[in-house]
Structures are given as structure tokens and as C-alpha cells.
Amino acid sequence: LNDAFRQQLSSARAAGRPYHFITFEAGINDLLLQNKNAPEIFERMKELWALANAEGSTVAVIPTLPTNVA
Fold first, then answer.
1. What is this structure's pTM?
2. Alpha-carbon 61 to chain mean position
3. Nearest to 48 by CA among 15, 68, 69, 24
């Protein structure tokens, strides 16, 4: 995902249409589909956040809501 995300950000900037704001839903797919734990999710979010910040984008994170899925 990082390579695709990086390419999308770079392409938008090169076309003169950089992303000013980016939102992330914090780990919902990681929790429900990939069984990742919180530290793994947080590290991944930091990587994506760093990529967005490097392109000059403002990042907003939407927290995962509690779920009863086990």
C-alpha cells in the first residue's frame, strides 16, 4: 500500500493538484480482516502519515469505533 499511496500523492502533486487534506480510518480493516494488533496498526498509520506529511498534506485520523466482532 505504501508504494501505491506514495505514487498517488506524487502524481497528484506533479499534475498540480496535490492533496491538501487526507483522512484515514484508523485500522478498521486491520482489526477486522487481518487480525492485526494495536501496536502494528499504529506503526502502519505512522508510516502513512509520514508519507502524506512529506507531500505537504494535512492528515486527519478517524478512530475506529468499538465493535463486538470477535
1. 0.66
2. 8
3. 24
